[in-house]
Amino acid sequence: MFRSHFFLTSFFLSLCFSLFAEEPKDVLLWPGDAPGEVEGEVGEETEEVKGVKRVRNVTKPSITFFLADQQKANGTTVIVCPGGAYQILAIEHEGEDVCKWLNSLGIHAALLKYRVPRRKNREPHAAPLQDAQRAMRLVRQAGKSWEVPLTKLGIIGFSAGGNLALRTATSFEEPTYEPIDPADQLSCRPDFALLLYPAYLTLKDDRTVLDPSIEMTSNCPPMFFAHTGDDHIPAEGSVLAYLALEQAGVEGSEIHIFPYGGHGYGLRQSRYPVSQWPNLASTWLVSLKMIEK
């Protein structure tokens, strides 16, 4: 069974890359049902609400590869986690558009369509974290065969996706599912993480305390935070996470707290300085030598 899962995964990854030049292709994360899934509990849909393209009811989580032009690609790769309160996925302005921006920097991107909505009797992040850990490993496996091979693998997330990205960057020593194939022998630790207005980082009744289920250690990767003071998701979460990284001795992290800009803007431009976060993030990646100027 282990061998058959390996060949099935390899087949789908090879198919994805051979057809990539035409359009991005979805690659399923799991050869069968995702861990802990209940048959018939949800059914996937795509909709548009007030100009926001949303994906609902994901039961077959997947990754979609957006590979940078080989003349520009530098080998750095990023998994993209859209937000949506762990209920839906804002798949376009916090997903597809982000992948294209990363490609413009010479970065390969993999859009993660993780399981939503929240599953019954499970923590909101539990099923998505399984998907994110599996995605990290599959991307590392796939990246070995690219024309410009993967060298560094990071993760970026927005809102609930920022929560997921941070948990992926702090929980890599805690396996969340039983190994399936050789890909699961690879590391699920990101080399860096970008967290845009990450949600659910503080206690519900005390925004001055970091959620104790989030533990920073010296093995965590450097992280980039951007948040606004007028966000309904408290910016204290980003500040506390950044300080916890500093206290753990993790070097290279960066944080930006802007006064205005609200929540859920993704790459959309506004009159507020927070719209400059992509430029700040790219400069940060240069400082870490993840990309060149």
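Next protein, fold it too.
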Amino acid sequence: MITKLNPAPAPTPPPALAQWEALSSVAAPGEFYRTWLALQCSLITGTASGLLLVRQTEVRGYAPAAKWPEGVSDLGALARVAQQAQTQRRSVVVRGRLDQASAQQQASGILVAHPVGPADAEPIAIVAIAVAPRGGNLDPQAIARQLHWGAGWLETLVARQRLEEGTRRLAHAAAGLDLLALAGEHRRLDASLIAIANELSARLQCERVSIGLVTRRRDGVRLKAMSHAASFQRKSQEAGTIENAMEEALDQRETVVYPAIATRVARIAVAHKGLAKEIGDRAAVVSLIMPSRGRPLGVITLERHRDAPFDEDTLLLCEAIAAVIGPMIDFQETGNRWITGRLAEGIEEWGKKLVGPRHPLMKLAVAGVLAFGLIAAFVKGDHTISAKTVIEGVVQRAVVAPFDGFIQKAPHRAGDAVHEGEVLATLEDKDLVLDRLKSMSEREKLVQKHREALATHERAQMVELQAEIHEAEAQLALVEEKLARTRLVAPIEGIVVSGDLSQMLGSPVEKGKTLFEVAPLEAYRIVVEVDERDLRYVEVGQKGRLAVAGLPSHPLDFSVEKITPVSEAREGRNYFRVEGTVEGEKSPLRPGMEGVAKIVTGRASLGWIWSHSLIDWLRLALWKWMP
């Protein structure tokens, strides 16, 4: 006989299993915290109350996230134990009297607090429970172990939140980099703004995206670009309404959302409401700040249809994009402006460095430059004109070749002191001696013929012979004169300035060639070759100093006596001859010496002395190129 058994009814899941299922299906963090704490308190026998503290990311500290049971109000003892666990970063067990609101029958029990998270880092949460004994001894280690095992859920929740936050930030960064690359493809600012507006409109599914930049006075916003519009009327009513909305967000320095959303603090949105009313069906408007270098650079205004309002994730994405592209737009805007852009920012940056507490070397350098400028502007000095100088004798005589001939002797050369009439050189005279003998013979013949004609009384022949005799005597006198001039003598007493024929004995010389120059020993003058640009400062009677190449350590004083109007072109410049007289001792000087002279033209500021040449050159260049 077979007996048919009825199936046993399905067992009812225990309360803990139901709580585990509820815990795995909770999505909101607040509900998750409450469910988790209730589950932990139900698993530990004798739990009277519980408290869960979670670390806050916005502020440093912990805030209550859940309490058990819901009606309990006095949890001061649990909060103190939780603080000890947070400070010591380990589980803390305290035996003592429980709060009356938590345990109505038991007078004493234990308080257990356990930090949740890695042992070497700040706890992400702290759970504290009050346990009252029920018919036996309490096991604090078992309670702490249970809390430690259950803490995995909290760690998993935090890890999941961090993963979601990282994924969201990665997506935001990728979108920002895409727009940054898009902006970098264009060299002009207007083209970059239009490309960014179009990309934002397509990526965020907006009806229109407008970008405005803060004006130079930083008191308003000027609309620069609109999506899907190559140009627009800047003075139109529509552009004015958009600029008003941008300025409303700029004044508050915060993102303005209309209509407001629950995750954001409500801001003043009067202008945004007016913009939404004007555009009709595009009722969702957002304006966010585009920062750069710690200041607002511009404002981006996005418009959507009322059926697709902006949520928190979209706002975070927009703010991330604005933060990434802001510096690029600032760089392009500054590059397009030279005077008010790069130069002004460079001056501002240098000013901050000078005023700030750092950069001591730069401050010292600027102070040195300022001191140098003050000295150059107010300290006066002697304005001098430096020029090449040559020493010449006041009287300088030349000894030239009297006729074509050959050098026989040359006992003197340049640098020798000679007396007046002293022989400097001798020319060959053999031919002249022969010419003299020939001329004397011719004269004797003619004299003899003249005597014979006189004896025969031939008057006509006498007259003719008398003329020939005079001619022969003149020829003889010429030869005698040439013979006398073969000795080249010093015309004056002095020093041979130039001429050295000692290495040219037997060499031919041409008539009129200068062989020697003789100058007196004590009568000198200096010749200063002054550039035509400096000639206007030179006057007769001015004083100066001279340093010759042979005696650079013994400068001599001189005075200007004459300014000649004759110029000499050399190396592409004109130089005028200025003559002066040496004052004081003249013994070390010799004619032909060269050096540098400085003529003192007066006193002027050091800055003018150092810069007047450059200023004169610039004036001439400007005058040359000006119409």
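About the second fold: The chain has 13 helices and 24 strands.
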